[in-house]
Amino acid sequence: MLQVLQQLPADPILGLSAACRADPNPHKVDLTIGIYMDEQGVCPVFEAVQLAQRALVAEEGTKAYLAAAGDEHFNTGLQRLVLGEGSTALMEGRVSSIQTPGGCGALRIGAEIIHAAAPGAKVWVSDPTWPVHIPLLGSVGLEFRSYRYYDPATHGVNFDGMVADLKQAVAGDVVLLHGCCHNPCGADLTLAQWGVIADMAEQQGFTPFVDFAYQGLGDGLEEDAAGLRLLVARLPEVIIAASCSKNLGLYRERVGATIFVCRDAANARAILSQAQVAARRVYSMPPAHGALLAGRVLTDDHLGAIWRTELTAMCQRINGLRSNLRRALEAKCGGDYAFIEREKGMFSFLGLTAAQAQRLRQEFGVYMLDSSRINVAGINARNLDYVAESVAKVL
Ligand SMILES: Cc1ncc(COP(=O)(O)O)c(C=O)c1O
Prior knowledge:
Strand content: 5-15%
Oligomer: single chain
Number of helices: 16
CATH architecture of the largest domain: 3-Layer(aba) Sandwich
Mean pLDDT: 97
CATH topology of the largest domain: Aspartate Aminotransferase, domain 2
Bound molecules: pyridoxal-5'-phosphate
């Protein structure tokens, strides 16, 4: 039976990262995979998480399953973090959430619920979007339409194109939005533009599905949530896929949640019951360790304060790297790289051709995707000039 299946090519992003690890070039630089790396090139464990972990290990008396919806501290802490302490929807009790294995699990459970509620729903995705969105949501049976988003000529959002395309989204359709720090392009909507999307959702009746994987890595925890909170304040229904992989550094622990903002409390309860049944048929029970750590950090004032300070430093470092990279590229290559400073989060398209990106890998050991998407957090003081000089050589 199994013999009929052929070997598949490596995942385009993970495959390049593996190729970089295997490259003997001593100057090699990995700008492929979307994990935060510090000045030493290490993806660090937050101190707040280490403290929470020590306490958890000392106190944990059981490894029995969590509740099907996950850890209560985690769910309430994350709802407040995402929606804001003063969220009206929260106070009205019309929010429910289920703890999921990472943001990917959150997207998948969101897709299961969308498919159950509206089997013919079309999901509108930005062009470009994170490539994993398509298999993750598509495997549930949802169909896609794409809307214009990134304009390589301006290195910004083609908002007129986005609005023109989304005019065709109807009630029962879902519009997938990147809450902040767009992956892959780094170009985000302004608050005024989020307002226009809210107007359109109100008038046309589509449901926003916000992928929120980078809260705190753009401008700050509150600033990065402003667009999403505007939607929640104005619309009866919003679905959010939140991830703690990046902002709590819990990548391998698989911590996230699908948050459902519903018309009323009864519907929020009904949707939670549906989400639990959906999770049961996909992976059964949520993993505990990471969510118990995140729950402690998010609901403990002392740990929370340490974590916020660490996350702010991380965010400032990314924005500092953006400025340094802009200056280094302008110095070595000429041209205008101000867009790198305007963008948010870890990603940016350098605007190179696939052939130039391949030369960078093969001749210089500078690894980026063929689209020239880079992870800015892979830059540090030791490799900054080398990256900029290498780019200048392939231009
Ligand atoms: C846009 C986007 N959404 C969701 C995720 C989910 O990540 P995870 O499942 O690791 O939490 C990622 C991770 O890279 C991402 O870039």
